[in-house]
Amino acid sequence: QIGRIVEFIDIPFTKTENNSNAILDVVKKHYGFYGEEFVERLMQTPLEKVEEVFNKSKDLLKQHFNTSNGVHSRLWNSYSLIRTAAVLARDLMGLKLDVDFITQTLISNEHMRQLMPTTKEIIYDDVVAYINTHLSSFVQIDRYLKVRSRPSGNCYGKVFIQDDNHYVAVVPQEIDKILNRYQDRRSILKGWRDEGFLVPDENEKDKRFTKRLTISEMSVAGRYYLFKFKGNEEFFQELLKTDDPEILIDLEEVNIEPPMT
At residue 170, what are phi and psi to the nearest 5 degrees? Predict the structure, then answer.
């Protein structure tokens, strides 16, 4: 059975942007021979029947999704909708669709997706790698509030221990360079914030993701992305070794400003 034939006139299949957009425009406007007929039959189907198929699809797929997670819940609904469309196309149009195979394919796809690192996790690794690479450009303050190291050039933030918590403050433009390589920047920041990895100002956490901080007692306050780590990261190890505060530089001696943007 032929479900869809699309005729392209004077549109060569190349990788150029103009031709790609032209092909996309044709595809979006053409639904094949079955498209209009399927919509007509669907409109004649009682809503209760459609809801019944959709709810059954959700029940079949639910155990494979963390439905308390917003992103996973949306995927669960989307996959359920795909299965619903397959069932209705089979029943209303008489198409020989293997709905069981489609269902298993959706489940397998979700299992594979869960095994792959998320974009948020990949960017987390990018942030850690950035701090390790540019550690000499950060003020490093140990748990005695003593400066362990300070940059000789541009300062991109500070690595510090406070109340047994391990933090890194980074000027926003440096993290934005990493985030701008990916889509949906805001959802990544929101996910970090909700998980406690990113610590914004409490009274502005719904408006922005940065925190107002000073790098030292003598520096001017600025806005930084403040990350909270577990403390086993490589860039904290030197600070954790220090037990004698007398050999360290006084915090008050440091006067470092973040780079101008």
Answer: -130, 135
Residue corresponding to tokens 């701090």: 131
Q: Show the tokens assigned to 192.
A: 């970090």
pTM for the predicted model, two decimal places:
0.52
pLDDT digits (tens, 9 = 90+) for 38-82: 888 999 999 999 999 999 999 999 888 776 666 677 888 899 999
DSSP category for residue 259: P
- pLDDT per residue over 164-216, tens digit each? 788 999 999 999 988 888 777 888 888 888 888 899 888 776 678 888 888 76
Distance CA(114)–CA(105), nearest Å, equals 14
Distance of CA 76 to the CA centre of its chain: 18
**Residue 166 CB neighbours (<10 A):** 20
* Helix-strand-coil split of the chain, %, nearest 5: 55, 10, 35
